[in-house]
Amino acid sequence: MPFDPSQLTYNADGLIPVIAQEKSTGEVLMLAWMNADAITRTLETGHVTYWSRSRNSFWAKGATSGHVQHLVELRYDCDGDALLAIVHQEGPACHTNRRSCFFTAIRDGEQVELMKPME
Amino acid sequence: MPFDPSQLTYNADGLIPVIAQEKSTGEVLMLAWMNADAITRTLETGHVTYWSRSRNSFWAKGATSGHVQHLVELRYDCDGDALLAIVHQEGPACHTNRRSCFFTAIRDGEQVELMKPME
């Protein structure tokens, strides 16, 4: 059956959460948001394009930094209200220059830094 | 530094998105939501407890189905507005009885089912 972005469920701002996962390692890199047009752009270009809530504009990941996310596959969940983008990430995914945005763990009530910025 | 759930950023409904990832395989299982109290319950009990937006109540994953998520580690992202729960999932994570909720891929504009319900 053909896919149409309008079949998904968006929040009041017209956005849906997107998990980016690195294909080669399985590492979860980040969580960001897309609107229907960002989904279409992502599928058409093969470069993951989010909607930036802070800048209120499309955010072609890596367009400025070079840290592009090449789309391997886009999946959606049983409720149609979340996306999983399997990607090949160039360089760090995080704006702090870390591989993943999820670099802080909670262990025994303490915050533990799991990784350092990449060189 | 001690962790306090109040340091995280919640949406207008007081919720934060949570990605559940299976420790043993790296598979992304689902995306759901927590409020600050659900985070505290999850950390205290070691059983992942979400906030159900449809039932407007705590949702101790597996309390009814037996498909418990044992917390291995809770992480949060650079902006403090998303969580990653590394878990050991008992049985299927999805209410459709599939391992993961992300069982549909978009390939060449078509929807492709990636996995069948577990026996």
TrEMBL record, chains A, B:
NCBIfam families: PRK00051.1
Amino-acid positions noted as binding Zn(2+) in the UniProt annotation, renumbered to this chain: 78, 94, 101
Binding site for Mg(2+): 77, 79, 81
Subunit text: Homodimer.
GO cellular component term, pick one: cytoplasm
Cofactor needs: Zn(2+); Mg(2+)
Name of this protein: Phosphoribosyl-AMP cyclohydrolase
Record keywords: Amino-acid biosynthesis, Cytoplasm, Histidine biosynthesis, Hydrolase, Magnesium, Metal-binding, Zinc
Phosphoribosyl-AMP cyclohydrolase domain location: 30-103
Any one GO molecular function term: phosphoribosyl-AMP cyclohydrolase activity
Localization per record: Cytoplasm
HAMAP family xref list: HisI
Cofactor binding notes: Binds 1 zinc ion per subunit. Binds 1 Mg(2+) ion per subunit.
EC id: 3.5.4.19
Any one biological process term the GO annotation gives: L-histidine biosynthetic process
Reactions mediated catalytically: 1-(5-phospho-beta-D-ribosyl)-ATP + H2O = 1-(5-phospho-beta-D-ribosyl)-5'-AMP + diphosphate + H(+); 1-(5-phospho-beta-D-ribosyl)-5'-AMP + H2O = 1-(5-phospho-beta-D-ribosyl)-5-[(5-phospho-beta-D-ribosylamino)methylideneamino]imidazole-4-carboxamide
Main subcellular localisation: cytoplasm
Cross-referenced InterPro entries: PRA-CH, PRib_AMP_CycHydrolase_dom, PRib_AMP_CycHydrolase_sf
